[in-house]
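Consortium newsletter contribution from the modelling node. Members have asked for a concrete example of what our holo predictions look like. Here is one, prepared for the zinc ion complex that several groups have been discussing at recent meetings.
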Amino acid sequence: MSWIWPEYVNRELPLTKQERKAILRDAWKLWFANKWNILLYLALPALYLLTVFFASDVGGRLAALVGAGGLINKLFRAGAPVVLFVICFVVGGAVLQRYRFAPCVYRATRRHGYDVCAKCGYWLRGLNDDIKRCPECGCARRLAEGAPANSG
Ligand SMILES: [Zn+2]
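And here is the predicted structure:
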């Protein structure tokens, strides 16, 4: 499942297995600290449970709308709950993972001393301090967390 639920730990970083685990553990701690995350992740199964009972009817109506009857209609009715499942859990999960979990991983990675972009996780290794934007995604570069504030 890592293709759809990646860990978002930058693979270029020279991490030991323990460090990698520690970063993920810290990322989950950051994730849990924001109650919105839990609410959003719970919203996925809730959305599924609230709508799955109507999915077949909607599928049947869609089939009727395009003028398909008989077997196609049955396929639409049978397939609709599957499509709903994929949208709620696979697509929805991947989106939440990307926008809610990945930033926690990047923050945790930064706390472990690796200067990765807070937005996309790109490793900003060896870049001059006067480079103010991530070369990968273009978002503003932040100082490493925990580092002494820049006097300039
Ligand atoms: Zn970036």
